[in-house]
Specification:
Layout lengths: L5 H18 L3 H41 L8
């Protein structure tokens, strides 16, 4: 490739600008969609973490009461 050829540089620049002009009207809805997917994914992760912590706390509390030195009960 001869990058110093002015005709080649103009052709390449026009191709890049044309591609950007074609993508420009479509880009904002795509970015909004990706942001929405990220927010939903974050909510799913947060809900899953909350459920896991609640489950661990409930299972852990049942075990800790049986073996707690303060409860007076032993296994």
């Amino acid at each position: 490739m001869d990058q110093t050829n002015p005709a080649k540089l103009v052709t390449t620049g026009a191709g890049i600008a044309g591609g950007a002009a074609l993508i420009a009207p479509v880009a904002p809805p795509i970015l909004h969609g990706l942001a929405g997917i990220a927010v939903v994914g974050l909510g799913v992760v947060a809900a899953g973490t909350l459920v896991k912590k609640a489950t661990d706390a409930l299972q852990g509390s049942g075990k800790s009461v049986k073996s707690s030195p303060l409860s007076g009960k032993t296994r």
